[in-house]
Amino acid sequence: MLQGTHTPGVLRKVFGGTHRNLKRGSMSGKPKLTYFNGRGRMESIRWLLAAAGVEFEEDFLETREQYLKLIQDGHLLFDQVPLVEIDGMKMVQTKAILSYIAGKHNLYGKGLKERAFIDTYVEGTTDLMQMILTLPFSPPEAKKKNLPLIIEKAKNRYFPAYEKALKQHGQGFLVGNQLSWADVHLLEAILMVEEKEPTVLSEFPLLQGFKTRISNMPTIKKFLQPGSQRKPQPDDKYVATVMKILKEG
Amino acid sequence: MPKVCCCLSSSQAIRSSLMAGKPKLYYFNGRGRMESVRWLLAAAGIEFVEEFLETREQYEKLLQDGALLFQQVPMVEIDGMKMVQTRAILGYIAAKHNLYGKNLKERALIDMYVEGTRDLMDLIRVHHKFSPEEQEKNLALINERATARYFPVYEKVLKDHGTEFLVGNQLTWADVQLIEAILMVEEKVSTILSKFPLLQDFKTRICNIPTIKKFLQPGSQRKPPPDESYVVTANRVFNRK
């Protein structure tokens, strides 16, 4: 089924299959994450793997040359990172990667409807976190203007929806009766917004309880401790590195 | 005679049969984010009804009724759920109607491919909002992305995969979204497929699938590209300048 090693096929970009590609992949069998040394779009993947108790390796992009080489060698389906090498695949597109991990590690609910709820919830938290992750890359005036808007959206649009979801569902989790991708993503979003506005949960008692409970789950507690692979908030150096590598702005 | 086991009272049964009715789409009378949903339902052969947002009052009523989880449309009433978030809606429809592959790895491929076409279509989806100068730049970007980033990938997938479809050996969400993207780009750059012979064949083949052929005919629920009145309506409903 796999193409020969002569023509760089797209399936080879995804499934590897040549000696050269296998050498690039993880020898230990652990998923290997290729991204900048910072949160960005990869952070949700780190969270989900950690929550699932899956150890992973990381390859940090530090120079434009590294990035261009990845493209030349045909490792990036759409010339973009995040890239996660997992189970013989070179996966790109954050949502696809997260769905695969969730599906594989029993974090995607039981049945079509639970999946639908999880998908809906993670889309909401993605929208919220996306606003924060792009903030460092906007000009200073835009940053000043946008941060209060983000907090306002968190308090008036997103957190009320999740507070209500927890209330109506009446369990410790957003969907079903066990941890799912939706819960992990929501915790990540809560902590991210709290870093900007520490009192943001003041009117959401159920979310406060949720935060405490989920943070205390062993795999997540471990990820929240110093020395884990969780990344700190982006600083100027991170922004400069990303812009240099992607040659943007 | 044993009592017929029925867990529903008669009024519940009526409600449940209504619930089992056609999906109902709430959106503007135009493409926007809902168009991919129309495509997928149509490709799956699922009839659907639409309620078009025309006034701010309609939107506020939906908000007040708690119908919009994140205060946003698209919203699709389907199988007793009021679903929001386009990707979630599409994922549900795909899985329900056997358009999401046969296992985790096929799903992974489909997910990657639809994210790519979605990124490309997003460039076009917002095109009409730009000023004429910005539109010129955006058009160049659309052209560049389509010919240098996205279409080469799908051309190679078809080449390497060797079946008529992007994933597996039957139609999936990935194929439907790709045909939608191709047609959308062609509306902006009519010769966009000139260097992609396999995509040309793909386009012909997929457009001839009965459900899709039907959707492409005049009188279907497929929407035209956005025009001035679409922009005006959306701004009015959302209280934008």
TrEMBL record, chain A:
PROSITE patterns, per the entry: GST_CTER (PS50405), GST_NTER (PS50404)
Listed transmembrane segments: none
Any one GO biological process: glutathione metabolic process
Gene Ontology molecular function: any one: glutathione transferase activity
Enzyme class (EC, first level): transferase
Keyword entries, A-Z: Transferase
Annotated EC: 2.5.1.18
Record keyword Transferase present: yes
Catalytic function, reaction form: RX + glutathione = an S-substituted glutathione + a halide anion + H(+)
Presence of the UniProt keyword Transferase in the record: yes
Domain GST N-terminal: 29-109
GST C-terminal domain mapped to chain residues: 111-238
Family matches, as InterPro entries: Glutathione-S-Trfase_C-like, Glutathione-S-Trfase_C_sf, Glutathione_S-Trfase, Glutathione_S-Trfase_N, GST_alpha, GST_C, GST_superfamily, Thioredoxin-like_sf
Domain of life: Eukaryota
Family recorded in the similarity comment: Belongs to the GST superfamily. Alpha family.
Protein name in the entry: Glutathione S-transferase
Organism: Alligator sinensis
Gene: LOC102372884
TrEMBL record, chain B:
EC number: 2.5.1.18
Originating organism: Alligator sinensis
Lineage summary: Eukaryota, Metazoa, Chordata, Craniata, Vertebrata
The protein's name: glutathione transferase
Keyword terms: Transferase
One annotated GO molecular function: glutathione transferase activity
Family the entry assigns: Belongs to the GST superfamily. Alpha family.
Pfam families, A to Z: GST_C_3, GST_N
SUPFAM superfamilies: GST C-terminal domain-like (SSF47616), Thioredoxin-like (SSF52833)
Domain GST N-terminal residue range list: 21-101
Domain of life: Eukaryota
Domain GST C-terminal: 103-226
GO biological process, one term: glutathione metabolic process
Top-level enzyme category: transferase
CDD domains: GST_C_Alpha, GST_N_Alpha
